[in-house]
Amino acid sequence: MTTVAVPAYAASGDSKLEPELRAQLAENRSTTFWVVLRDRADLGPARRAARDERAARVYRAATEHAARSQAPVRALLASRGARFTPYWIANTIRVTGDARLAAAVAERPEVSRVLADKVVPLPKLTPAATLPRVRSGTQNAEWNLARVQAPRVWDDMSVRGDGVIVATVDTGVQYDHPALAASYRGRAADGTLQHDYSWFDPTGLCVDGVPCDNAGHGTHTTGTMVGLDGDHAIGVAPGARWIAAKGCESHACSTASLLAAGQWIVAPTDRAGNIPRPDLAPDVVNNSWGGWGFDPWYSQIVDAWLAAGIFPAFSNGNAGPGCASAGSPGNYTAAYASGAHDAAGAIASFSSRGGGQDDTVKPDIAAPGVDVVSSVPGGYASFSGTSMASPHTAATVALLWSAVPGLRRDVATTRQVLDATATDTDDTSCGGTPADNHVYGEGRLDAYAAVSGARQPSGVLIGTVMAEGAALSGATVSVSGPVARQGTAGADGAYRLALLPPGTYEATVTRYGYRATTRTVVVDAGETARLDATLDPAPVATLTGTVTGAQGPVAGATVRFAGTPAATRTDADGRFGLTAPTGRYDLRVEPRDGCDGVRTRGVDFTADMSVDLTLPAHRDAYGYSCGATTGGYAEGTRRLEPDVPDDGTARIDLPFPMTYYGHPQSAAWVSTNGQIAFGGPETAFTNLAIPDPLPPNHMISAFWDDLYVDELGGIYTGIGTDTVVIEWRNVRFYGDPSQRISISVVLGRDGTIAVHHRGLQGALSDGGSATIGIENADGTDGLQFSYGAGVVSEGGGVIFRPPGAPGPRVLGR
C-alpha cells in the first residue's frame, strides 16, 4: 500500500480526529469524513407544542440552529473548494478532503469531533421454514400475527390501524407488491401514483425515483407492518398506510443515506429532496438495522424523532446469545428495541441481549422473529431475525394510536402501555428481574392487551419531584395497583402517568443518591390526580468483598450497582470497595474478559457491609470454555513463503485432524489480520463481535484487527507431534506503523487452542480495538474472550477448551 505523509496537527485539533480517520488519511490523499458540531438545537419547545405542530417545530429549530452554528465551518470548506453536504438533523457536515483540510476543520472551536465515514451492516435475512398457517378470526393470519393477538384487535375491536402512517428506513419497498400496493400513501384512491413525500431514495439506486427494493429486506419488514393480499394477512396493522426512505444501499447502509433518511422522516420532501413538508411526517418509523456495541452517532436523529412525536422502533440486533450484545441504535435509552422469539414464545438464540445505554434494560420488548412469513419482491418468503420482530412492535403502535387518538404522538405514554401489557417472561440469565430482564425486556408483545388496556376508562397522575428546595430531574415514579406503570421526572421535576385505570395505587419515587418515598394515591376515571414528592439525600456506606472465578481471584472485573453511576474494579487479588448512597440495588459483576460469566445479586445496602461473589464459568452453546494459560510463548520455526499479501490468507495443511465445533479439520487459512479460518480463505480487516452471522465465520480470532505484515515482521508455523504453532511475529498495526505485536496460537490434537501475546508496542497492543475468540461455521455460536477491551498483557495468554477437555494446563515452550 502507498502511504503519504500526514501533516503534524496542533494538539487540540489532533485530539478531535478519530484514530480510524487518521489512518485513512495516511493511506489516501482524499477521503470522506464527518464533522460533528459541538452544539445541539434546543428541541424542548417542540416537545411541548401541540402534537400536530411538533414536527414543524423540530424542523424549524434544527435547521435554524444548523445554519447558524455551521456557518464558520461551511465558510472554511467553501474557501478551500471542498465538496461537502450539511445536515440539520444531527448538526453535522459530510466532507470529502485531505489530511490538511481535516486538520484545519478540527481546529475550529465549534467542532466537537471529526469522524471516519462508516457503513452499518444490515442484519442478514435468514431463510426459514414456513410454519403452518394459523386461521384466526376472519383473516387467514400467519402464526406471528395470531401470537401477538392482532386478529382479535381487528375482529373484536374493529381496529386495523386506520388513519396512522408508518414509515420504514430500510432497503426500499416494492410499492406495487399485491400485499402493499393498496396501503402505499403515494397511491391515490383512483390508483394514480405520486411518489413525492411518500418515497425518498438518497442512495440514488432506484431508477427514475420510483420505489424499489434491491435486497428484499425492506419489503419484508413493511409487509409485517401493513401487508394484506386478499385473505392473505401478513401485517399487524393492515389498515395503516406506509411511506419509506431507502437508507440502505443493499445489504449495508451508508452513514450518508441513514442520516438523509432520518432527516426526511421529520420533514418529508419531494423525490429530489426539496420543499420539505414536516406536516407530512409519519407517526411511527421502523428501523430493522443497526451496528454492534454502543455508538451514539445516530442519537441526535432519534432525539429529533421523539421531539416530533414519532415513535422510534428498532431491532435489538442478531448478536446473541451472549449477554451485553445489544447494538446501536437499538440500545439507546431513547429507542424502543425489540428482541425476537419463536412460535413457542422462546427467545431466539440470535436475539441480542442487553444492557443498553446507561445500563437500561434491552431489549424493551420481545416479538415474533423466527420463521416469519412476509412479502418480498415478486412473492413471499419466511425469514428470521430481530429485523422481523421490530415491525410487529411498530405496527402495534399504529393499532394503539388508531384505537386511542389521544395517544398519538405521546411516545412516553405509549411506551408505558406496551411495557405494562407485555406478557412477563422470566429469564434473568443476563441480568434484570423476572418481569423486566435483558433477554425479553418487559416481556412478549401482546397487541390485544395493549389496545384493550389503552381503551379502558382511565385517569392521569401528575406531580413534581423536589429535593433540597429545587426541582429534581431524573427521578423515577412507579405506581402499582390496578396496573403497574413507571415514568421519569423531567428537567423541571414534573412527571405524568396517563391511562391509569381507576383505583388506589401505591406510588414510589426513587432517584439514585436519595431516600425513596412511598405514598398512596387514588386515581378516578376522567380525572387528574396529583402527587408531589420531596426526596431527602441518602446516607453513604461502603460495600467491600472479593470476586472469584473458576481459576481463583478475578482481577479487573467491574463491580457496579446496576442503573447507577456507582462502579469500581477489582484489584489483582479480586478485592473491591464501592462507596455509594444506601438503598436496594442489583449488584452486578462483569468480568474483564469472556472466560467468566456475569453475576447479578440483589443487596439491601443499608450500612457498611461485605459480600463475596463467585462468577459462573462462561461457555458457548457448543460447550467451549476458556481460561488463562501459563507457560512460555510458542514460536514458529518456518516463515511462510512467499509473504502473505495484506488482507490476504495462506493455506496450511494440518498434520492431524483437529476437531473444531465437532468436525475434524485438515487445513487452516491464516490471514494477516490475526485470524485462522477453517472454512476457506475468508478474512476481513474490520473486526466484529463474536458470534456474528456476517462473514468471516468458522474461525479463531487470535487478535482480529487491521494488522500489516511488513519487512520487519512475518507469519511463521511450527509442526509438532501433537501441536501446530501459528505465529504472527512483530506485525504492525495498519493505522500506526509505530505500534507492533507478536501473537502465537497453538492448535492441539485434543482440540484445545492456546493464544499468547508478547512484544507489545503501543496503546493498540492491549486489544482495545481487537476481537479475540472462536466462532462456529455459520456464526451462530462462539466464545468471545474480548471485543474492544484492553485485556491483553505482555506474555499473557488464553486457552479455549472443547467440552470434555482437561482443565488448565501449560502450552508452549
List the keywords.
813 residues; 33% strand; 13 helices; 8-stranded antiparallel sheet; globular; single chain
Provide structural commentary.
- It contains 13 helices and 53 strands.
- With 813 residues, the protein is of the alpha+beta class.
- Strands 40, 41, 46, 47, 48, 49, 50 and 53 form an 8-stranded antiparallel beta sheet that branches. Strands 9-12-8-14-15-16-17 form a 7-stranded parallel beta sheet, with helices on both faces.
- β49 (736-748) and β50 form a beta hairpin.
- α9 packs parallel to α10 (299-307).
- It is globular, with a radius of gyration of 27 Å.
- The chain starts with 10 loop residues before the first helix and ends in a 12-residue tail after the last strand.
- Mean pLDDT is 90; it is low at 1-12, 132-138 and 808-813.
Rounded average pLDDT: 90
The gross shape turns out to be globular
- CA-to-CA gap between the ends? 36 Å
Query: How many DSSP-defined strands?
Result: 53
How can the largest sheet be summarized?
Answer: 8 strands, antiparallel
Report the oligomer.
single chain
Uncertain parts: 1-12, 132-138, 808-813
Share in β-strands: 25-35%
- What radius of gyration results from the CA coordinates? 27 Å
What class would the helix/strand composition place it in? alpha+beta
Helix content range: 10-25%
If helices are DSSP runs of H or I spanning 4 or more residues, what is the number of helices? 13
